[in-house]
Amino acid sequence: MTLILHSKNFETIVSHCKEEEPIEACGIISGQIRNCDGKIVKEVHRIYRCKNKLHSPIEYKIGAEEQLRIFSEINDNCLDLLGFYHSHPNTSSNPSKIDEKRANYVGYSYLILSLHPIKISSWILEQQGFFTKEKLNII
Ligand SMILES: [Zn+2]
Question: What spacing in Å lies between the alpha carbon of 8 and ligand 1's midpoint?
């Protein structure tokens, strides 16, 4: 699978994450899933900023109410939930041990932005506790 991220949405994620520094920023991504020449392509159309309920530099949590509100907005707009994003203010863009333990949307994308230096990676949660890297195209 490939995740396509338009550069304006990438910039939105970067500026959100910089604003929240030193705590982790988090949010939700939605868009469309297409079959392109036999390959599954997911294109991000909208970014939803969320509040990190844990207010922590090493972990994040999106509140249940906020998450439900955004999921229904995605539904109302006939978009698909593609996954989540969050920042790592002090570590690489690889999933942390906490991410492996907490992530529970199997099959969805987890975008991680490291801030020093700026680097974004996309990960698919294959099963609880296990991520694989996903191809990410910034266009
Ligand atoms: Zn993380």
Answer: 22
